[in-house]
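Reopening this one. Same input as before:
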Amino acid sequence: MKRIGLCVASLLLFFSIAGCVQAGNSGESESKQQLVVMDWGGATTAAHMAAMYQPFEQKYGVKITVVTPTDFGKLKAMVTSGNVSIDVASVSSDFVIRGANEGLLEKLDYNVINREGILEEYAQDYGVGAELTSTVISYNTNQFPAGSHPKNWSEFWDTEKFPGPRALWKSPFHTLEIALLADGVEPENLYPLDVDRAFQSLDKLKKNVKVWWEAGAQPPQLLANGEVALAAAWNGRVEKAIAEGAPEELEYNQGIIQANSWVVPKGGPNKDLAMKFIAFAVEPEQQAAFSSQINYAPANTKALELLPDEVKKRLGQSADKVGHQIILNDQWWVDHYDQVNERFQQWLIK
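Same output, byte for byte:
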């Protein structure tokens, strides 16, 4: 019996080794580690691909599969069902808080990920900053030539000195912040938001808002064709229009900064590799490479040292601009969004 047992064990060992050899010869893609990343798609994913995904694949011999677009409902369904196929996801920074609250995310390993240089607001337990965008004052340069545009939100609200129809985001997100800044609230006193005061401020401008936009591509188009003179807009969209020759510009003073973040869904199949990828993605070199290709600023401030002055200026990160913007308080919005949004939508139809 002992001899039979030894023979069986030897046969099992032989087939195991043979199987490993066969798998190793079945093709390079099968031998590589696999990482699945959920991303937004479009230009953002293209820039991630060039600056992060492909270099990571080459450096570590990993095959990255990208799934688009980012879908919070899909992530939640995966985690709650225990069938998680996504290793890393690029999400809005508020989802870091909501996802952590709902038990959907793994805690990040900052023994692997170096948080040095990452803006404090975006180096969180369950997510780390990927890139930054700003909601800024944008304007038609035919109507406001040679620097005659509004330089802050109070001036944006001044329809006598700065005439013309406006466009605002059809969302309380950012819109309440700029309404309070327009009403004279100092940036350091912005949070917690005084919601009543914000709506009172919005009342003063409402009749001059010709378009409440819902997609980021709208404000640059509205400005380019002269339908509006001024708009609250996402900086990247306006910078792209400027590069294409549109008669518009933007003012970064009092811009409202928001971030996308990298997260790891709870129960993902490659947790350790996911941490390794995020560590790579937030390094200054990759962050700088990303921001060189797209109009999003790096979340790692050390990346700015690697960027030329003209790129920093385009991203609103030059010395004369970087200290004059306000980081959106995600925690406040996670706590209050539903109630405030309901009030905002009712206010719109009054």
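So the earlier flakiness isn't reproducible anymore. For the record, Residues 135-256+331-348 form a domain with the D-Maltodextrin-Binding Protein; domain 2 fold (CATH 3.40.190.10).
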